[in-house]
Write a structure and sequence with these properties.
The chain is mainly alpha-helical. It has one domain: STAS domain (Transcription Regulator spoIIAA, 2-Layer Sandwich), CATH 3.30.750. The chain has five helices and three strands, in the order H-E-H-E-H-H-E-H. A three-stranded parallel sheet has the order 1-2-3.
């Protein structure tokens, strides 16, 4: 509840910078409550038609995310290198 608004603010600022993709790396996060998940889903809904957005999550939060079907809503990767490779591929295809 306390950090979800910070996450939301950073995501809005990032998207306003017109990036070619957004990768949200949660590998250092030990706990993600429903409010944080809602922020991620809302962000994905806002930008997925304009740019690739994915989440990197492994460890303690990946299981709950998968249990609620988060990985079916948006791309989710266990490792940062996998996510970066995919968004680079998506970006190249968009401009081909």
């Amino acid at each position: 509840m306390l950090t979800a608004p910070v996450l939301e603010r950073h995501l809005v600022e990032t998207v306003e910078g017109h990036p070619s993709a957004v990768v949200i790396d949660l590998t250092g996060v030990d706990f993600l409550a429903s409010h944080g998940m809602s922020v991620l889903i809302a962000s994905y809904d806002r930008v997925s038609d304009r740019l690739p957005l994915c989440v990197v999550a492994d460890g303690p939060i990946s299981r709950p995310l998968k249990l609620v079907g988060f990985d079916e809503l948006m791309p989710m990767y266990a490792r940062l290198d996998q996510a970066l490779q995919q968004v680079q591929s998506d970006t190249r295809q968009a401009f081909a």
